[in-house]
Every structure is written in C-alpha cells, then in structure tokens.
C-alpha cells in the first residue's frame, strides 16, 4: 500500500501543524496556500510578537453554538503539548502573569520560521500562490482544483481560516468550499475588533490611553467587566479590554439589542471618595479655573470632555463656582462614563471571525466530517471563537494536530 496522500488547504497556523503532524507519520503531504508565502497572518499576531497560547486555556474562553466542542480537542493536544512542540523545534517560550505565552524572542517570525523548517524536514510539499477553488469527493478520494491544475488526494484538511483581516489573506473560501461539500455555516461577523460609539468628542480624544475598568450593558443589564488600557479613537474605543468585549457586543448588536458601556477611570475609589477628593481640590484653589484644577486628577486630554459631560458649560469658570451637585456629577462621569455602542470597525480591523462552519457536523476528537469520510477541518473556519489572549492560536494548534493525526489513519 502506498503512502496516504493528504491535501491541506491553507498554510496558516492550523494547516502548518496539521501538515507537520501528518508528515511525521509518513504521509505524502501537500499544503496549498493562496498567498505567496505561508503564515502571513501568524506573523501579524500579538502585534508581531505572537501570543501563541494561554496557560489558562479551557472551554470557558470559547464561544459558538457549542463551546464544549473544544474540550476533547484540547485533551488531544494540550497547552503543555504546544509548549513542548515549539520548544522541541527550538523556539523557547515565556509566559506572563495572565497566562499569555509568547516566543521568548517576542518575535512572531520565530514561530513561523521553526514551523517552516519543520515542514521542510518532514518532506511536506508547499504550493504557494495556489488557491484551491473547488474540492470534489469521488469514489477513490478527492479532486482539488486550482486555477490551472488538478490534484488528487486520499484525505483533505480544510484549514482556510476566516475572512477576518483580508489584507493578511482572510477569505470566505473555507466556508464556501465546505458549503459546496454539503456543510452548513452559522452567521459570521467580525470580532476582537475596536468599537464605535456615539461620543461626540471622540475626534478630540483620539490617541488618549487610560487604565480603566469597562463594563458592558446589554439592554441596560450589566453583563461583564474588563480592566486594562482603554484607547480613545476618532470613531470610539479600542484597546485590549474593549476588543475583548467586542465578541459579546457584536453578537448582541446582531440581535438588535441595545448596547452600552461605562468607563470607570477610578476602579480603586468609590464615588463618595472621589466626591470628597474633588470637593477638597476645588476648595483649595478657588481662584483657578475648573479646567486647570483638574490637571493631575485625570489625563489632561480628558479634562474638557469630562467637564462638559458633567453638564458644566464654562470650562474657564473658577473653582469657587463649583457646587456640591457639580462635584457629584464630575465624580459620576469619571466613575461611570457612559457610551452607547453602535457598531464596530469591520473585517480589516478584526482579529477573528465569530461564527463559521457548524461544529455539530464534525467529530470533536478526529475533526473529521460526519457527512464525508476523509474530509477534515481545523482552525478558525469552524464556529469556534476564542477570547483575546492566545486562545485562538491554541485552538489552531490543537485542532490542526488532531486533524493531521486523524487524516493519516483514514481508510482507503
Ligand atoms: C492582526 C491579528 C492578530 C492576531 N493575534 C493573535 C494572537 O496574538 N493570539 C492568538 O491566539 N490569535 C491571534 N489572532 C488570531 C489568529 O491569527 C487566528 O485565529 C489563526 O491564525 C487561525 O489559524 P487558521 O490556520 O485557522 O487560519 P489562518 O492562520 O488564517 O490560515 C489560513 C490560510 O489559508 C489560506 N487560504 C484560505 N483559503 C485558501 C484557499 N482556497 N486555497 C489555498 N489557501 C487558502 C490563507 O491564505 C491563510 O494563509 C490574530 C489575528 C489577527 C488578524
């Protein structure tokens, strides 16, 4: 019996690890990549530093129709397996306090390089600039079609990722190919993406960063909070805690819910403490303008917005004119600055795609299709959405490994 021929469509994170896994088992593996090189998106991950996994990775960090789908796949290739895998390829890793793990070099290129070298040493063929436009199943296996060539294989792994970040190769191609083979997809929308707000001063605040607690409200009900560096932009809000909330925000907006958030610039102080502090501050400098008195209290670029948001129209009026209701309102603004969220930036700015091919149509251990024998999937093409923090790459590694391992066992 000859070697099993395995075709992997997509040379991203999950496609590369699937290819290495299958190649190590002695299969005849070909990776088809539409870009001019593999791993273009991987190079951009973690701001070029590649947050490759998270030590706290478990199903609680995943969203989709069935978040439990990830559990068995993570047992098949654990976080430790991921660390050992990259260490054995020569890429040392470092884990931060919150579990986020990076290559010790903090260079995404390290991860891509070791994967490329290993593809080569496993004898995997890589065909770049070869977008696969159709996949057909026949009695003897699969026929893959590119613009000008036909390829035959015994098993196929579709690892095409999602349409997030089209400038890095994001495309709907994976979903389209799987739909043509009879699979179904849930609705997709961009997530891990900055949010648009109704706030009128946004342009003026552009580029201002503050450490804050941000709380999400859906239909006026408090849902969850995130703490971290919030970035004010010309369209609304960004920064890690905002991007993290975007999964819940965009899912709620899809269902026409009313979405708001509050920014707390003083999570370590109560409203009463702030009121007291502001009262003392204004009393101490009665002949100085309100605007000047607030220097050192909050970020300088936020001062005018906070004052007007608190209903005080004259920035130049003296601190002596401030009464108890004014200090109460300023304390409320800095503690609970409310923004209506009316959307997000789009696919170009999204890290990932929520939704995708229905997980119920795949085996959650082997990643094989329940509809077509010999057809496998891995990575983001599925309806598996991880939080920000290394969870999506861990999903790509684990599902890619599972698919690669199972594809070599497919019966001919
Ligand atoms: C800017 C940015 C930063 C990110 N940072 C992080 C991070 O730090 N940590 C983290 O965990 N996640 C991060 N992510 C998410 C992470 O990159 C993805 O979840 C992960 O790459 C998905 O792996 P994949 O193999 O499924 O898809 P991809 O890595 O996207 O690979 C799919 C590949 O398939 C190719 N392809 C598609 N269709 C075809 C076709 N028809 N024929 C041939 N080739 C095809 C594409 O060109 C692409 O190379 C980030 C994403 C972005 C955009």
Total of helices: 13
Specify the biggest β-sheet: 6 strands, antiparallel, barrel
Instruction: Please tell me how large the radius of gyration is.
Output: 25 Å
> Architecture of the largest domain in CATH?
3-Layer(bba) Sandwich
Fourth-tier CATH superfamily name of the largest domain? FAD/NAD(P)-binding domain
CATH topology of the largest domain: FAD/NAD(P)-binding domain
Beta-strand percentage range: 15-25%
User: Which ions and ligands are bound to the chains?
Assistant: flavin-adenine dinucleotide
> Helix proportion of residues, in percent?
25-40%
Q: Stretches where pLDDT falls below 50 for ≥5 residues? A: none
How many beta-strand elements?
Answer: 21
Summed up:
This protein is α+β, with helices and mostly antiparallel strands and 412 residues long. The protein is built from 13 helices and 21 strands. The protein folds into 2 domains: 5-189 and 354-407, FAD/NAD(P)-binding domain (3-Layer(bba) Sandwich), CATH 3.50.50.60; 194-345, no CATH class.
């Amino acid at each position: 019996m000859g070697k099993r021929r395995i075709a992997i469509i997509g040379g991203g994170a999950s496609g590369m690890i699937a290819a290495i896994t299958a190649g190590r088992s002695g299969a005849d593996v070909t990776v088809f990549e539409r870009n001019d090189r593999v791993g273009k998106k991987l190079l951009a991950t973690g701001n070029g530093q590649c947050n490759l996994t998270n030590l706290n990775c478990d199903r609680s960090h995943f969203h989709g129709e069935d978040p439990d789908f990830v559990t068995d796949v993570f047992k098949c290739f654990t976080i430790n397996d991921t660390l050992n895998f990259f260490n054995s390829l020569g890429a040392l890793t470092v884990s931060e306090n919150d579990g986020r793990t990076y290559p010790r070099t903090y260079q995404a290129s390290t991860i891509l390089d070791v994967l490329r070298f290993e593809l080569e040493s496993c004898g995997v063929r890589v065909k770049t600039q070869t977008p696969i436009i159709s996949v057909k199943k026949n009695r003897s296996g699969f026929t893959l079609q590119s613009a000008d060539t036909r390829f035959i294989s015994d098993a196929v792994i579709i690892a095409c990722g999602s349409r997030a970040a089209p400038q890095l190769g994001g495309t709907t191609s994976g979903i389209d190919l799987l739909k043509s083979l009879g699979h179904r997809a849930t609705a997709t929308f961009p997530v891990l993406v900055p949010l648009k707000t109704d706030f009128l001063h946004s342009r003026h605040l552009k580029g201002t960063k503050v450490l804050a607690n941000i709380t999400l409200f859906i239909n006026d009900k408090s849902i969850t909070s995130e703490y971290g560096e919030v970035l004010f932009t010309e369209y609304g809000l960004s920064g890690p805690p905002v991007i993290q909330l975007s999964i819940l925000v965009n899912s709620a907006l899809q269902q026409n819910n009313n979405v708001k958030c509050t920014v707390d610039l003083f999570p370590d102080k109560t409203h009463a403490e702030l009121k007291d502090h502001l009262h003392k501050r204004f009393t101490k400098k009665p002949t100085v303008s309100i605007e000047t008195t607030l220097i050192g209290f909050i970020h300088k670029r936020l001062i005018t917005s906070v004052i007007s948001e608190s209903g005080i129209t004259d920035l130049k009026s003296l601190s002596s004119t401030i009464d108890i209701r004014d200090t109460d309102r300023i304390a409320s603004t800095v503690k609970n600055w409310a923004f209506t969220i009316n959307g997000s930036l789009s696919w170009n700015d999204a890290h990932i795609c929520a939704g995708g091919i229905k997980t119920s149509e795949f085996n959650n251990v082997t990643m094989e299709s329940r509809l077509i024998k010999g057809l496998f999937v891995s990575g983001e093409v599925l309806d598996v959405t991880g939080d920000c923090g290394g969870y999506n790459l861990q999903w790509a590694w684990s599902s890619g490994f599972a698919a690669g391992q199972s594809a070599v066992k497919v019966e001919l």
